[in-house]
Amino acid sequence: MFREERGRLLAALVRRFGDLDLAEEVTSEAIEAALIRWPVDGVPASPGAWLMTTARRRAVDRLRRDQTYAARLALLQVEADRAAPPVADGVLPDERLRLFFTCSHPALPEADRGALTLRYLAGLTTAEVARAYLVPVETMAKRLVRAKKKISGARIPFRVPEPHELPARLPGVLQAIYSIFTEGYAASAGPDLVRHDLAEEALRLARILHRLLPGEREVTGLLALMLLTHARRAARTGPDGGLVLLEDQDRSLWDRAMIDEGEPLVVTALTGGPPGPYGVQAAIAALHDEEPTDWPQIVFLYDVLRSLTPSPVVDLNRAVAVAMRDGPEAGLALLDDLAAEPRLRGLHVYPAARGELLRRLGRSAEAATAFREALELVGSEPERRHLLARLDDLNG
């Protein structure tokens, strides 16, 4: 419940007071107060309203005690009110979605926009945001502090952008929503492989965005990608909660309704102009949902994706697809070419993929070394158990 309400509290308080630090502090204080009072008084009938009232009172008390702080916030609020155009009911029906756009302000560096959104509005931890951007946790912590200082120093107003501003800010919003989904679909740490709360929240926001901007093909592509990927969630773990690879999954457990919803969206995303990255990834996900899997077409689509968004993670996934098309030796050669890529060094998926291909080639000692390297990096318990099972198999 706290995860669900935290985003709403932050969004509403930032809109009201125009200060992210204040909103974050009083949100935390309200949750702390709930942890103290609710075990004694019982959970209120409207927990979200209780938290909002408590947080708002804490903010007002703080402003009354600090007149300088109050004057500065009042100025920010007046500026925001003057800059914000009138918004009809239903234009942006979720305050968190409004702030997704707000935090994609062009005055902020591109990387800082997404990081700020993920940390403070989506509720991801600093470590989870760092994983999404393939950077050390310390680097991400500094980036978040810098982004908040930029908002304060440049007096960036927390407001809904005008309609003509939306397309320029859309890529950052899409990246933020997809990063939330990625962490939800494959949690970077913890006892569960899937964090359903994050994945389903990202899907909810993507549906809202698609309703608002139905003509934006990349919005359609992102929604399709998430539907076609999340459709496999029930088959991704076994009875013991361990990871099940795609090729070993029980396809009868896949969510056929989600697949049926997502497939027509792929066609829409790829029609009417050059493809975008989310549309291409949605097409790859659609091919994974077919049987037999068309690996030559998947490799071709990864080539297209590389031309649109070059990335070591794209290269890694393409190498795995090549291994499925041409054999593990061909894929291993491509993975070895990525060995010096610094952005892959902290990710367990790289040595795990190498270990799997080495295992299939019968090079057991090298495979065991790669799996042990992956074990040192992995944070998810189901993925850890999968790697340990692979080592057990290699040891007979």
Entry summary:
This protein has helices at 2-17, 20-41, 47-65, 67-83, 95-102, 110-121, 126-133, 137-153, 166-185, 196-212, 217-230, 256-269, 277-288, 295-308, 312-326, 328-337, 349-360, 364-377, 381-394. It has 396 residues and is mainly alpha-helical.
Descriptive account of the structure:
- With 396 residues, this protein is mainly α.
- The protein folds into four domains: 1-83; 89-213, no CATH class; 221-241 and 251-291, no CATH class; 297-396, Tetratricopeptide repeat domain (Serine Threonine Protein Phosphatase 5, Tetratricopeptide repeat), CATH 1.25.40.10.
- Helices cover 69% and strands 0% of the residues.
- The protein has helices at 2-17, 20-41, 47-65, 67-83, 95-102, 110-121, 126-133, 137-153, 166-185, 196-212, 217-230, 256-269, 277-288, 295-308, 312-326, 328-337, 349-360, 364-377, 381-394.
- Helix 7 (126-133) crosses helix 8, helix 16 packs antiparallel against helix 17 (349-360) and helix 17 runs antiparallel to helix 18.
- It is globular.
- The two termini are 45 Å apart.
- Residues 78-93 have low confidence and may be disordered.
- GO terms for molecular function: DNA binding; sigma factor activity.
- Residues 106-151 form the RNA polymerase sigma factor 70 region 4 type domain.
- Residues 169-268 form the DUF6596 domain.
